[in-house]
Design a protein that fits this description.
By secondary structure, the chain is mainly alpha-helical. The protein is 50% helix and 10% strand. It contains 7 helices and 3 strands, in the order ααβββααααα. It has a 3-stranded mixed beta sheet. The radius of gyration is 18 Å and the shape is globular. It starts with a helix and ends with a helix.
Length: 174
């Protein structure tokens, strides 16, 4: 899928959400959980280095989104938004972890359930891009979609450069 179409699809998914104002990721998960008919639990966890930053584990009764607890709050929001993106887009994970790894990460859950749910590395690249795009669009809600920043005012060439950089990062021509 071309990036332009991907962005439009993700924007449509996010536009159809009942996003709480002011934006609150936990309230968004509550709304989404009600819509899906099953609660979404946000679970901070210390994940091993050089692994995933987050994962979504659907169980028979609820969805658990695990996210790295030892990172900045903004990064945590992006991780959670990414995992929410997988839920919103209906992505399905495949088996990748063995039973021992499953017991180590989630000792209270059935290892077979964890193996079926944590297939992050087996998500198709297109699904990862879609989830990342949705997460990024949700993260923009933290700022309320504002284009302004409360930094010191810039003048002349600095203001022009800042404006071009911000525009290219926030409004890519995908």
């Amino acid at each position: 899928m071309k990036l332009h179409r991907l962005r439009k699809r993700c924007e449509q998914i996010v536009a159809e959400l009942e996003v709480p104002e002011p934006f609150d990721i936990r309230k968004l998960c509550d709304v989404l959980g009600e819509r899906r008919g099953r609660p979404i639990h946000l679970v901070p966890i210390s994940l091993p280095a050089h692994t995933v930053c987050g994962m979504c584990v659907p169980t028979g009764e609820f969805d658990a989104i695990f996210f790295e607890q030892d990172t900045s709050p903004l990064h945590q929001l992006l991780i959670i938004g990414h995992e929410v993106g997988h839920l919103l887009a209906g992505h399905r994970a495949t088996e990748v972890l063995d039973a021992d790894a499953s017991r180590l990460l989630l000792p209270d859950l059935d290892p077979q359930l964890v193996q079926r749910s944590l297939g992050r590395s087996n998500y198709a690249a297109a699904e990862e891009r879609e989830a990342e795009m949705i997460g990024s669009l949700l993260l923009r809600r933290v700022r309320g979609g504002r284009g302004d920043v409360d930094d010191e005012p810039l003048d002349g060439l600095q203001a022009e450069l800042y404006g071009r950089l911000r525009h290219s990062l926030e409004h890519p021509h995908w």
